[in-house]
What does this fold into?
Amino acid sequence: MANNQDLMEAGRTAGAYGVRGWVRVVPHARDGEFLFEVDTWWLLPYPRKPGVTPKRLDVKELKAHGKEFIAKFEGVDQKEAADALKGSLLVDRNDLPELEEGDYYDDDLLGLTVINQEGVVLGKVCGVADNGAQDLLEVQPEDEKAMSFYIPMVENYVIEIDFEEECVKVDWSADWN
It folds into this structure.
């Protein structure tokens, strides 16, 4: 089994496609093409329960289907078995293609501190979402009771992502939350 620390969420499964065991796959990234490079995926089933370990899924075939994909897994040949595979889809980082200089995976942003131009800490990155127009940084303020908020990942707002300093520098006012 892959080391759980090396697994990163790549999307989710969304039930059966047809009656022959195909499974609908919704990638998190707008460009989920990297999934074609990975033969072994891991499923963390819904509903989440403490202590549940991801289940290995061996990919037999993967096809693009609109903005999503459909996948055929080893040993899944019927609709009922495909419907049972609903959950978070994980991949081993070690199986992913090498990134070009300056590129990163969304998971690399998780936990980075978000700081505005005035030096105010706005919180930590707790997720990356896609609103159809651009990616959004989900930021959880230091006050855990405060609601998270989103910052569009465009040049006007995200000034720099500094992995060495473990921070994201933004042009965002603290009172815009």
